[in-house]
C-alpha cells in the first residue's frame, strides 16, 4: 500500500510540491484551489466544516456550467435516465475511463456534475472516456443505482470493438457519492456478475473525495450534511449500511488497483485509511493521498480542478495511471 501517512514524502509527493507553508493571507478558497498535498500526521488534523450558503451556491453554479463538449450520446438501457456520453480515443485499443458523478445519489447528471478539465486532460492523453447518467433516488434505491452503472459498463464492453477501446482495461472514476459507487463496484463483484462482466477487467478505481467507505461509521464520522445524506440514501439499518460499504467487501476479488484522492475532510480521511488497510490485507494495490481544501470548498475544487496540470492531484493521478493503466501497453 502506498499511503501519504508517512512522515517522509514519496517521490510523487515531492513532485507535487507538498508541505509548503500556508501564507497567512491565503483564504480558504485560495488554499483549496491551490490544493497542495498534505502528508504525515497533518492529514488527521481537525478541519472546519463551515461554508456560507452563498459560496456553496457559487460552487454548484460553477460545476453546473462547466460541462464537457464533444462526445457522442448513447443509450445503455430502457430507463429514461439510462444514457451515457462517450469520447473515442485518439489511439487504437486504448483504456477507457468511466466516470460516475456525485450528488448524494439524488442530484446531478452525466454532464453538469463532472468537471470538464478531467475529460479534456484524459482524452488528450489518449484514453477513451465515458460519463454515465443513472436514475436518482428516491425513484430507485442506491443498490439499483449501482447496478445501473454496472450495466452501463457492460454495454460499453459489449460494444468495445466498434467504439475502439480495450475492453480488458477499464478505469472507474467517481466523485463524492459517485466515488462510493465506483469503490463499491470495485470491491463487491455481485453487481458486475449480474451485468455479465467480470471484475477482473476493472484494472483501476480512482475515488475523488469519496465518502461512505464505511457507511455505518459515516453517521458518526461526518455529522451534519454528509451524515444526513447517508441516512436519506441508505437508511439506518446496520445490516444494509454494512452491505453498502466498500470496506466490508474488500476481501477480494477486487479491482486491480485503487487510487484514493481525498481533500482535508477529517471523517472521510479516517475511512479512506481504513479502506486502504482492508484493500492491502486482501493483496490489492492501493495509493492514498490527501490535498488541501476543507469542507465543501475542497470537495468541489477537486472535482472542478482535477485535470488542470497546475492542480497537484492531477500529477499524482497521471503518474499513478502510467504505472497501472498506461495508454500504450509495454513492449513484449
What is this structure's SSE topology?
Blueprint: E1 2-3, H1 11-15, H2 28-34, E2 37-38, H3 53-65, E3 72-75, E4 83-87, E5 94-100, H4 116-124, E6 128-132, H5 142-158, H6 160-163, E7 165-175, H7 177-185, H8 190-195, E8 202-208, H9 215-221, H10 225-234, H11 238-243, E9 257-264, H12 266-281, E10 285-294, H13 295-305, H14 312-324
Parallel strand pairs: 1-10, 5-6, 5-7, 7-8, 8-9, 9-10
Antiparallel strand pairs: 2-10, 3-4, 4-6
Helix pairs in contact: 2-13, 3-13, 9-10, 9-12
Verbal overview:
The protein is an alpha/beta fold and 332 residues long. It has 14 helices and 10 strands. Helices cover 40% and strands 18% of the residues. Strands 1, 2, 3, 4, 5, 6, 7, 8, 9 and 10 form a 10-stranded mixed beta sheet that branches. α2 packs parallel to α13, α9 runs antiparallel to α10 and α9 runs antiparallel to α12. The two termini are 27 Å apart. About 5% of the residues have low confidence.
Amino acid at each position: 500500500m502506498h499511503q501519504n501517512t508517512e512522515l517522509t514524502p514519496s517521490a510523487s509527493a515531492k513532485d507535487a510540491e507538498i508541505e509548503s507553508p500556508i501564507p497567512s493571507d491565503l483564504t480558504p478558497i485560495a488554499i483549496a484551489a491551490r490544493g497542495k498535498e498534505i502528508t504525515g500526521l497533518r492529514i488527521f488534523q481537525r478541519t472546519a466544516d463551515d461554508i456560507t450558503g452563498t459560496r456553496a451556491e457559487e460552487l454548484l453554479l460553477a460545476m453546473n456550467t462547466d460541462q464537457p463538449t464533444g462526445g457522442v450520446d448513447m443509450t445503455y438501457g430502457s430507463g429514461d435516465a439510462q444514457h451515457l456520453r462517450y469520447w473515442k480515443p485518439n489511439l487504437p485499443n486504448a483504456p477507457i475511463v468511466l466516470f460516475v458523478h456525485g450528488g448524494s445519489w439524488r442530484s446531478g447528471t452525466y454532464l453538469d456534475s463532472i468537471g470538464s478539465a478531467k475529460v479534456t486532460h484524459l482524452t488528450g492523453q489518449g484514453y477513451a472516456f465515458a460519463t454515465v447518467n443513472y436514475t436518482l433516488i428516491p425513484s430507485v434505491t442506491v443498490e439499483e443505482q449501482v447496478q445501473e452503472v454496472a450495466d452501463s459498463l457492460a454495454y460499453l464492453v459489449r460494444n468495445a470493438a466498434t467504439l475502439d477501446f480495450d475492453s480488458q482495461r477499464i478505469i472507474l472514476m467517481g466523485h463524492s457519492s459517485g466515488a462510493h459507487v465506483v469503490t463499491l463496484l470495485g470491491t463487491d463483484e455481485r453487481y458486475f456478475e449480474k451485468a455479465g462482466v467480470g471484475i477482473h477487467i476493472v484494472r483501476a478505481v480512482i475515488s475523488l473525495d469519496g465518502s461512505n467507505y464505511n457507511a455505518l461509521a459515516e453517521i458518526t464520522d461526518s455529522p451534519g450534511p454528509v451524515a444526513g445524506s447517508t441516512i436519506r440514501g441508505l437508511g439506518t439499518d446496520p445490516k444494509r449500511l454494512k452491505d453498502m460499504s466498500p470496506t466490508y467487501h474488500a476481501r477480494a476479488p477486487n479491482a486491480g488497483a485503487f487510487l484514493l484522492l481525498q481533500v482535508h475532510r477529517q471523517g472521510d480521511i479516517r475511512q479512506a485509511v481504513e479502506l486502504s488497510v482492508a484493500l492491502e490485507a486482501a493483496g490489492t494495490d492501493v495509493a492514498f493521498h490527501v490535498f488541501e481544501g476543507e469542507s465543501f470548498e475542497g470537495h468541489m475544487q477537486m472535482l472542478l480542478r482535477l485535470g488542470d496540470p497546475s492542480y497537484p492531484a492531477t500529477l499524482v493521478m497521471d503518474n499513478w495511471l502510467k504505472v497501472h493503466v498506461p495508454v500504450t501497453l509495454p513492449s513484449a
